[in-house]
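$ ./design --mode recover --in tokens.txt
reading tokens...
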């Protein structure tokens, strides 16, 4: 199967939300910023920005990279575990 893109169209792979591992810890580091840890190691952060949650991958907040924007904290955490 092939796909043809024309100017102005965007192709994206469908995203499947997988359940997050049970051994995750989500802690509010400061107001609106949540640290996500797996077995005591920081895997990323979720920043609450109004009606969106931005998933940031990386152990250090100021150098982490955005991997997703979601409507819930739970789905943002799941995106970090699959990034």
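writing sequence...
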């Amino acid at each position: 199967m092939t796909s043809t893109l024309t100017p102005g169209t965007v192709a994206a792979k469908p995203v499947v939300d997988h359940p997050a591992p049970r051994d995750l810890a989500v802690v509010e580091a400061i107001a609106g910023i949540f640290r996500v840890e797996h077995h005591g190691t920081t895997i990323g952060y979720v920043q609450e920005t109004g009606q969106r949650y931005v998933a940031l991958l990386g152990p250090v907040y100021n150098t982490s990279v955005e991997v997703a924007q979601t409507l819930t904290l739970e789905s943002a955490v799941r995106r970090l575990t699959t990034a």
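exit 0
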